[in-house]
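User: Run a structure prediction on this.
Assistant: Running it now.
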Amino acid sequence: MSERVCDYPRPPALVASTELVRVEALGLLLAETHRSLRVLETFHPPTYYLPPEAVLQALLQPCPGASFCEWKGVARYFDLVRDPGSAGELRLRRAAWTYPEPSGAFAALAGWIAVYPALMDGCWVDGERVIPQPGGFYGGWITSRVEGPFKGDPAHPELV
């Protein structure tokens, strides 16, 4: 079943999913779950939020800075760090985020974690490898069932 992102709502919708979501980062399995929340916003591919218990917490290191979403509230960011402090330390800066205290309609997102697919080794939905949403700021997950055009795509500057 295909989804057209131009049909997604504004303000965005929060939709529970039972798809198998898998994320690999820094050569490790960061998360795997059949329980996620998708944020569906006009002209954006879905952003997947994962329950904290499904994420390898040892890789998450809070980092400075925050951003504000008019719908969800204040986001806090994490670096993903493997072997911290060692000569072989690996770090993905600001690669994941969460909303510790999201706004009203998004209260269910509290503490759930999203990642930038472009920074991961790979992200999959039901076995299909995800294509990251264009534009470095966005965290959308593009699969074959999602139809664009997508915000952030240089081929569609009217959506930027």
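The two ends are 27 Å apart (CA to CA).
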